Amino acid sequence: MSTLKNKVQLIGNVGNVPEAKTLESGKKVANFSLATNEFYKNSDGEKVQNTQWHSIVAWGKIAEIVEKYVGTGKEVAIEGKLTSRSYETGAGEKRYVTEVVADEILLLGTKDNQNAE
């Protein structure tokens, strides 16, 4: 059970073109948003879609895969851990961010939509 302490698994669609960059250290990082959908029926029996947006961060080899093969709308499965951090804006406001740091990525969908953008 110790491996389940901080594990996130998501399947969804990429919401934006991943932003990949190489840091001064030579390490590569990629950031993108992922939309997950769930459906339920409301009290009137109507089908309702609830979309949640997640910030995803990938490092190293996974970032390279994201940069090369992942585009807007692409369906992917992500496994990683949930992290939180804060930073200060130029105006001195403190901001808080919660992200999923990807340990694994699986490209889903058809080969034809591999680089959909």
What does this protein structure show overall?
It comes from Gelidibacter salicanalis. There is one protein chain. The protein has a single domain, classed as OB fold (Dihydrolipoamide Acetyltransferase, E2P). The chain has a five-stranded mixed beta barrel. The chain is globular and about 55 Å long. By secondary structure, the protein is mostly beta strands. It has one helix spanning 60-69; strands at residues 8-14, 19-22, 28-41, 47-59, 75-88, 94-107. It is built from one helix and six strands.
SSE arrangement:
Elements: E1 8-14, E2 19-22, E3 28-41, E4 47-59, H1 60-69, E5 75-88, E6 94-107
Parallel strand pairs: 4-6
Antiparallel strand pairs: 1-3, 1-5, 2-3, 3-4, 5-6
Organism: Gelidibacter salicanalis
GO molecular function: single-stranded DNA binding
Subunit structure: Homotetramer.
Please outline the major beta sheet.
5 strands, mixed, barrel
Superfamily (CATH H level) name? Nucleic acid-binding proteins
Strand content: over 45%
Got a strand count? Answer: 6
CATH topology: OB fold (Dihydrolipoamide Acetyltransferase, E2P)
Short description:
The chain has 117 residues and is mainly beta. It is 9% helix and 56% strand. It has one domain: OB fold (Dihydrolipoamide Acetyltransferase, E2P) (Beta Barrel).
Question: What are its keywords?
Answer:
117 residues; 5-stranded mixed β-barrel; 56% strand; disordered C terminus; NA-bd_OB-fold; Primosome_PriB/ssb; single-stranded DNA binding; DNA-binding
